[in-house]
Amino acid sequence: MEQYAQKKLIIFDLDDTLAPSKSPIDAEMAGLLVKLLAHKKVAVMSGGSLKQLELQILQNLSCTDTLLGNFFLFPTCATSFLRHQNGSWHVVYKEELGAKEKQTITKALEVALLKIGLPSEKIYGTRIEDRGTQVTFSGLGQDAPLALKRTWDTAGEKRRAVTSILEGSIPEYAIRIAGTTSIDITRKGIHKGYGVAQIEKHLGVSRDEMLFIGDALSPEGNDYPVKEAGVLCVEVSGPEETKKIIRIVLSTTAGR
Fold first, then answer.
1. Annotated catalytic, 16?
2. Residues 6 or more apart whose Cβ sits within 8 Å of residue 172
3. Helix, strand, or coil here: 11?
4. What positions does UniProt annotate as the active site of this protein (predicted)?
């Protein structure tokens, strides 16, 4: 499609876009990303931490330093930005939350959970996680089995009930539903839309030259700020659909 051919930078969400939640990209996806990096700049904007991006993507990507120069990481909803230069990853910016901010968010989450009576059920790992630049709530815990996560809040009703309370108690923060069981909380205005502005600033790519691919583009989703920023967005249902989009983008580069 011609509209894809004109895009200089492709932005991906991670969980349920490039890979199943908290899972590594498969070999086919890794191969497609390497091919894409030979023609386009590529960014990943994820609610996950840098560690998650390393485990899910970087450790499974066989790529030269030259191609990694076209790869840009925006962990924790673009509250930080890393780029690969001179053989290693360098932090461009990092919007760290202060200790009091984290305490405020954590307390508000605890109160919200009590108010709606959301049962703790069986929790796998940390339920409220400090990701440095973001606090993330995971309904079943960070280490919950994927099969359980997929059925816990399919319609998003449980998390919408929590976010509704949080929007009243901590209005100074951005609160977004993410993945299958998560809620991401950052400073107001520091989200994936902020990441788009930083791409323009640091990489010189305008938003009309970007394409975003993600699974959470509804108004409460953590991908929605990218849509609000005016970037062309494609919503996908999972990695297999993402692969189809990548193949279409690659087909537009033939002979270029």
1. no
2. 187, 188
3. strand
4. 13 (nucleophile), 15 (proton donor/acceptor)
182 marked ligand binding residue:
yes
Closest listed residue to residue 216, CA positions, set 153, 164, 161, 169: 153
Which homologous superfamily is 99-187 in?
Eukaryotic phosphomannomutase, cap domain (3.30.1240.20)
The residue type found at 217 is L
Confirm whether residue 184 is marked as ligand binding.
Answer: yes
26 is in an annotated binding site: no
When the pLDDT of each residue in the chain is averaged and rounded to a whole number, the result is 93
Residues sharing a CB contact under 8 Å with residue 107, sequence separation 6 or more, in sequence order: none
CA distance 203 to 55: 25
Q: Which residues are paired to 91 by β-bridges?
A: 82
Q: What is the mean pLDDT of residues 185-205?
A: 95
Known active-site residue 15:
yes
- In the three-class reduction of DSSP (H, G, I as helix; E, B as strand; rest coil), residue 108 is classed as helix
Compute the Cα dihedral for 17, 10, 5, 3 and give only its sign.
positive
State yes or no: 131 annotated in a binding site.
yes
Q: Would you kindly state where each structural domain of the chain is located, as residue ranges?
A: 2-95+190-251, 99-187
Q: Which amino acid is at 96?
A: E
Nearest to 112 by CA among 183, 176, 164: 164
Q: Which CATH architecture has domain 2-95+190-251?
A: 3-Layer(aba) Sandwich (3.40)
